[in-house]
Amino acid sequence: MTSHVPGSGPGRALNTRADVAELLAEWLTPLAKHLNPGATRAGLGVNAAHYGHALAGLEGYARALWGLVPLLAGGGKSALAQPWLQGLRNGTNPHHPGYWGVPGDSSQALVEMPAIALAAALAPDFFWTPLSQQEQGNLTRWLLAINDRALVDNNWLYFRVIVNAALARLGEPHDPQAVRQALDRVQEFALGNGWFSDGEVNADQNQVDYYVPFGFHFYGLLYAALSHTPEGERETRLRQQARAFAPQFREWFARSGAALPFGRSLTYRFAQGAFWGAAAFAGEEVLPWGEVKHLWFQHLRWWAAQPMFTPDGLLSTGYGYPSLNLSEQYNSPASPYWAFKFFLPLALPDTHPFWQAREAAPPFTTGVFTQPEPGMLLCRDDADDHVFALSGRQHRLWVRHGAEKYSKFAYSTHFGFSVPGGAVGEEHAAPDSMLLLSEDGQHWRGREGAAHAEVSEQEVTLTWQPFPDVTVRTRLIPHLPGHLRLHDITTGRPLHVLEGGWPLGARDDWQQEHLAPHDLLLSSEEGYSRIADLVGQRPATFFKPDPNTNVLHPRTAVPTLRCELPAGQHRLGCFVLGRRQQDDMRQTVPVRPSSLRPSLSAALQGEHTP
User: Fold this and answer.
1) C-alpha torsion sign, points 526, 369, 267, 312
2) Domain 17-356 maps to which CATH number in 1.50.10.20, 1.10.10.60, 3.40.50.2300, 3.40.50.150?
3) CA angle 249, 255, 259 (to 5 degrees)
4) Alpha carbon 7 to chain centroid distance?
5) What's the Rg (C-alpha) of the chain?
6) Is residue 271 left, alpha or beta, with left meaning phi > 0 and alpha meaning psi from -120 to 50?
7) How far is Cα 287 from Cα 247, in angstroms, rounded to an integer?
8) Where is the composition biased (Low complexity) (predicted)?
9) Does a cis peptide bond (omega within 30 degrees of 0) precede residue 598?
10) Rounded to an integer, what distance in angstroms lies between the CA atom of residue 262 and that of residue 545?
11) Would you call 604 helix, strand, or coil by DSSP?
12) Nearest-CA neighbor of 577 among 388, 365, 371?
């Protein structure tokens, strides 16, 4: 797949600071024609978020700054510099028609303030010194409103921290007490090993996703770099937490640079790698500089090869390709430009150790890596450059398609995951990496949370209730390059059952091979996906979800197992395998179901199976 943007794509060299600066300048250029007459808003499309059009336009203006400011601060050039300066003047002028207004509690304007504050603090020659004294006062007053507004009690607290740190750097009025209070509250979300819950810590309810690297750590490191007391207690703790987090987080990346698609806000795309850039900006060697540089560059190379742009060169809403099916209710057409947080290292000079280092691939953990804080077993099939996570602890129902983004059994750097195409009908379901249950064969329920979840070094165990009188205990057991699933089901009603393996992409069609009636192998140019029943004799079938519902592949197929269960107690089990390699499929299938039976619990022996 290739990009719509000239100059990007898999063949483009991205090896130096100059290469990245040139790429960013090209990606910034299409935004200019979308500015309104006062240059205070950039309207990038007509689809809506839950906030209004004016705020979406402010978002379009502000998020461009995440790329523009480092580019200019590091000596680069862009035609956007002058119009964005004009927008800063007008947007903070209460008498201008394009005034951004007085933000209310939890307003989207508060989310965009850090980028605007940092424009003045990091690139003062472009966004501060040219302002008159009155204009500087307007900007300061508009930014100070963040200290008197309610913020969402999660990563949003950092917006107040960064705005005040930027104002302090400029010598403007700011509120040190508000910063201390916000930083202290953030520490109440700490889980250990550098992980945070994005909000109140609550046992199995913690939300642990990409807001940890591109929210908590990105802003924490940025604050540590901006602070007038860089060796202070809070700053030191933030740096220590980043160092603890780095060896954990690198395991979320394949050697190709692809990151694990999991959780909400995936439309921010390469913001997934912004943590590595923030570490560089803060001068914090969280891993050897060569490894940090390699992780950062390799991630950008992977994304530059994806078809993520609209035909006129704008970042689209979606993930691996444009798709509104994957968006959240808070995504406007401008939201994807939070990805530009990735480019923070461009503010650093060529002489910085990050830029001077020679790239070195990090020593990834081969095999299984336990991460209790996000509730995952990370599994790396190094020979196939495939990383997948067995996940059981998280759920987040307020997010659109939250169950699919947080509560599937497994997530993959190559296969991704899918969301439903509709509410009624099996054909609209998303059975990949999930056990779906239905009373009527039309309305399907999967795991939306877990009444109880445990993560050990050997397996993920979770108990969940899709219906009031149905309890499922699921065990997810790594068996590289695949995994085992065992389900104990107690049901007070008859059930239709549909269980899916990895979703396999294809440009045109898939090849199907039944290795047994209950063992199906699908293959395409994207690799292969296999599911095999291990306990009973559920027939294996080909399932084709709705198009544009997978995060990585516009068209997918899923090998599935089916059965019907009467009321009572039942045990189901299967083996799931997916690989990228294009070899002879029979030769590359590494195991047969019979060879896996010794891996099953002794409790399975002699049990009744459907």
Assistant:
1) negative
2) 1.50.10.20
3) 50
4) 25
5) 25
6) alpha
7) 7
8) 589-604
9) no
10) 19
11) helix
12) 388
**Extents of the domains making up the chain:** 17-356, 367-604
- Integer Cα distance of 101 and 97 in angstroms: 10
Give the start-end residues of each E strand in 150-211: 190-192, 195-196
Task: Tell me the two tokens of residue 504.
Answer: 């396999």
> CB-side exposure of 449: number of CA atoms within 13 Å?
11
Provide the pLDDT confidence category of residue 492 given band limits of 50, 70 and 90: very high
Structure tokens at 136: 């500087």
On whether the CB atoms of residues 490 and 470 are closer than 8 A, the answer is: yes
pLDDT tens-digit readout, 299-345: 999 999 999 999 999 999 999 999 999 999 999 999 999 999 999 99
DSSP 543-581: E-PPTT-BSS-SSEEEEEEEEEE-SEEEEEEEEEEEE--
The string of pLDDT tens digits covering residues 232-256 is: 999 999 999 999 999 999 999 999 9
Residues contacting residue 52 through CB under 8 Å, at least 6 positions apart:
none
Query: Tens of pLDDT along 408-427?
Result: 999 999 999 999 999 898 99
Q: Are 289 and 362 in contact (CB under 8 A)?
A: no
Q: How far is CA 362 from CA 138, 379, 380, 533, in A?
A: 47, 16, 14, 37
CATH 2.70.98.70 fits 367-604, yes or no: yes
Strand order in the sheet with 386-391: 367-371, 376-381, 386-391, 410-412
Going by C-alpha positions, the residue among 473, 476, 472, 474 that lies closest to residue 458 is: 476
For residue 318, give Cα distances in angstroms to 303, 420, 548: 13, 15, 10
Report d(CA 474, CA 572) in Å as an integer: 9
pTM: 0.95
Residue for token pair 């009188």 = 469
Q: What is the pLDDT of residue 449?
A: 78
Q: Which residues contact 430 (CB under 8 A, 6 or more apart)?
A: 404, 417, 418, 419, 420, 421, 545, 549
Alpha-carbon distances, residue 233 vs 159, 196, 239, 242 (angstroms): 20, 19, 10, 14
